[in-house]
Amino acid sequence: xxxxNPCFEQLSPRYIFPFIEQKLAELQQTTPEAKILNFGIGDxxxxxxxxxxxxxxxxxxxxxxxxxxxxxxxxxxxSFLKEAIVRNLxxxxxxxxxxxxxSDGINSDIVNILDLFAPTNRIAIPNPxxxxxxxxxxxxxxxxxxxxxxxxxxxxxxxxxxxxxxxLIFLCSPHNPTGMAFTRMELKEWVEYALxxxxxxxxxxxxxxxVNSEDTPRSIFEIEGAQKVAIECCSxxxxxxxxxxxxxxxxxxxxxxxxxxxxxxxxxxxxxxxTKFNGVxxxxxxxxxxxxxxKGKEETEAQVRSYLYLAQxxxxxLRRLGFTCFGGRDAPYIWWRTPDNITSWxxxxxxxxxxxxxxxxxxxxxxxxxxxxRLSAFTTAPxxxxxxxxxxxx
Amino acid sequence: xxxxNPCFEQLSPRYIFPFIEQKLAELQQTTPEAKILNFGIGDxxxxxxxxxxxxxxxxxxxxxxxxxxxxxxxxxxxSFLKEAIVRNLxxxxxxxxxxxxxSDGINSDIVNILDLFAPTNRIAIPNPxxxxxxxxxxxxxxxxxxxxxxxxxxxxxxxxxxxxxxxLIFLCSPHNPTGMAFTRMELKEWVEYALxxxxxxxxxxxxxxxVNSEDTPRSIFEIEGAQKVAIECCSxxxxxxxxxxxxxxxxxxxxxxxxxxxxxxxxxxxxxxxTKFNGVxxxxxxxxxxxxxxKGKEETEAQVRSYLYLAQxxxxxLRRLGFTCFGGRDAPYIWWRTPDNITSWxxxxxxxxxxxxxxxxxxxxxxxxxxxxRLSAFTTAPxxxxxxxxxxxx
Lengths: 394, 394
Prior knowledge:
Helix content of chain A: 25-40%
Oligomer: homodimer
Strand content of chain A: 5-15%
Structural class of chain A: alpha/beta
Largest sheet of chain A: 7 strands, mixed
Strand order of the largest sheet of chain A: 2-8-7-6-5-3-4
Order of helices and strands of chain A: HEHHEHEHEEHEEEEEHHHEEHEEEH
Shape of chain A: globular
């Protein structure tokens, strides 16, 4: 009889997002007339931009003609997309197209990259953070010596370099769930930490398109020395509304100091991906390309601005109502302190039943998320207004 | 400094398919006028069926309207696709839609499923076989006690149940690379073996659409008792030309005997996928749906018939020229004995340089593949004719 990976027993029995979906479904069943306002899962609220729709349809049509059909693509992505990413986002930082590896999502990348590392490594993870970081470490058996990096009011809701060393560090900026982003100085401290301790930073840059503060980097590679110690994970999910299409990429610089015998991390990742993954659909990569340039870029940038506007409206509204909240300036998330010291799940239930409003309890992202809930600004202006109206009567 | 997963050192330094691609690129550079005939990688040669093109475009357009936009889909696939798979392929076998898990490819599934198992398990792998089975076991640290199942002329180029027990078994029928398929009796022996030894069969059914012999099952679940001991992996890559679109599914029966405390394998896989994967693009799933019913089914079945016809033309032609070959009856692959006992790589070079013809050396699939090469019938009628003409002058 095959033995099961015993690490599965260490996983928390419920994964937060499906659990919230279930709560929502229950409410819809018991109170079908409720008009539910969903500020929960960070999913897009705007339809796909017209240029992206056109680009994908045209690529699928190409595949329907003998002269332009395509089968398997390169496991790590088409050059046209890699080159456009470099041209539009990284050329000034010295990143080249061979450093770009296309995939179906940051979620896949951040967990799959762990394949490359031995289970003896010490990993640092922010608390609270996106639950997949920790769960992936558990499944891979890498959780035996986790170092938790508290993100509390005292730390500015972002992780700070600890006094001890570690091998791998998950960082995310703008941070999910707190909606706060590193300034240049703060990120520089992390790069210096990694250089000092020979650690590798796995930098989740999923929300970088929302950065608009001047002193806040959009890429970790804006910091000198980062190319020796960091991998950056980016996605089209939030910048171009690709949550339902699936396209992302990882930047693995050639200058990384970590090597395995003579093998670079690029070589190892390439080997991992060619063995375990067959690449992203050609039409989806064409859609991603369309979002980077010309009209597609304009359309998707307008969507990002509208989410940011909603985040600001929402946080200003909450403050006017006397609540305390953070984030939302360079991120689509608002980190909302629960009133009267109630727990995040109590506040979740209160908002659900009294205002028919979905949020994510901070505790679901880690113990330091207790007494906060996350609101997502991936929503519409009328929903924000309606939420503020309902909260005013609470 | 992070330590690298030491299992990577055990991987063979070159993965066969990219290596062949490189050889091809070299020839194209040195002899740009060569008209190369590619019978190598098992990629499709027919363009996407019209109904699939329409279904995908229409789904992308839906995503472009506010009223019908879609973000994240379910991690394990949309119900519309699961239900259509059951309705068209599994209803008579007692499989239900909750047993179906959609993914981006069999390659991903067969390697990711290993996440669920402890590295102490004994795994049986056919030799020769699709290289990802073994490489995935290596990366996951599951290779320490591999049991190789020889597929030689004596075994009919298919694996036979060994005399000793094991925990997990990779089977593939029709088999890649030998192009041979289990009869009902042969597969029954494997199910009985698994029941006797409490083993779990990971059944790769990628080429089942090519089965046309009467006594050859298309699904392992046609064998009584298989639902207690087998998981089946299927794909739209070959049945509907989805190699460049990426959609597959796994059937995990509810009746499986293997459990982990009270957790079924369905529950564990669901937890793995919701943590590590965000599902397949909505338009791609709509395209897969289109291939299962009505006009899309007719179009894709016609493609499969045309590949099978080419496989038969090719194998008959080779035999007429005095060569020895196997497979190609219920599979798109022909297993071609090298002449004069030369090695598979020598024959590869000979065919490449003398006939500008690409095949895959059998040794790339395992030591028992030595002295054979694999030809793929994912090609066109003029290429088959041209290949036979060139070989006649060899």
